[in-house]
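dumping this here so i dont lose it
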């Protein structure tokens, strides 16, 4: 998120605009209260970024608040969900997951664990579905794919890795984590359990946060264009358009030292 906000600020400066950031931690009531508060200040535009947006939220009180704001002459842009009633920039989370799943299958892995898969977060469930389809398209039997549910945090990844290690890895040779934070936690959990990455298990994440290139081993991941999304969000916010515009951005696979071809 930091990369996205920095890109927003750079783009706004070039247009002579100013960005103010408010954090709601993805909590619907806080999102609604923040939008109401900011409306009173009459900003030129509102950009809402969250992995926790759901269609029903935008169809409910939050959506009505944003529509009222636009009728008053403001402009709302949603980052994180595509195809909303507002200008929207989303990510192909399913495609990102499929890239990672296909890569694991192509490099010879046949028993795979997925870390995460929290159903209430649409981006995470989309990535999980992509993992499964990419693996199966590469010849992995669905019965050999196991989802290990965990908190979407570094601690969640650490505990999921420790649980899997305590089970003797359950024969799993590769782990696909729904984001880099979980994957980085998993690296620490496996290290604490005496499991070598990538010697005993390969680990792949999604997002390509800055820390992904700094941990040891450096993390293989699917990079999402977060900075590009931030810049595009400001362009959408400052441009005039008659109808809602939708943009979906794709990820790209970055192979680093946390994975290797199966022997």
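and the seq i came up w/
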């Amino acid at each position: 998120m930091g990369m996205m906000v920095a890109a927003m600020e750079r783009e706004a400066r070039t247009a002579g605009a100013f960005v103010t950031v408010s954090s709601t931690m993805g909590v619907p009531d806080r999102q609604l209260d923040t939008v109401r508060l900011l409306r009173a200040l009459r900003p030129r535009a509102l950009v809402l970024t969250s992995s926790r947006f759901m269609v029903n939220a935008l169809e409910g009180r939050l959506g009505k608040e944003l529509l009222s704001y636009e009728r008053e002459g403001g402009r709302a842009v949603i980052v994180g969900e595509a195809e909303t009633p507002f200008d929207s920039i989303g990510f192909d989370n399913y495609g990102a997951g499929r890239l990672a799943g296909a890569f694991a299958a192509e490099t010879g892995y046949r028993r795979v664990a997925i870390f995460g898969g929290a159903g209430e977060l649409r981006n995470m469930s989309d990535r999980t579905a992509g993992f499964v389809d990419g693996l199966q398209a590469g010849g992995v039997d669905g019965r050999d794919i196991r989802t290990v549910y965990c908190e979407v945090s570094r601690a969640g990844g650490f505990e999921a890795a420790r649980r899997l290690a305590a089970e003797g890895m359950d024969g799993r040779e590769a782990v696909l984590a729904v984001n880099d934070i979980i994957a980085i936690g998993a690296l620490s959990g496996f290290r604490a359990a005496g499991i070598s990455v990538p010697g005993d298990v390969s680990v792949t994440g999604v997002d390509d946060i800055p820390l992904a290139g700094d941990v040891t081993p450096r993390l293989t991941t699917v990079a999402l264009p977060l900075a590009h999304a931030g810049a595009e969000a400001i362009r959408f916010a400052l441009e005039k358009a008659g109808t809602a515009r939708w943009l979906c951005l794709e990820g790209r696979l970055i192979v680093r030292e946390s994975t290797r071809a199966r022997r």
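Residues 122-137 form the longest helix (16 residues).
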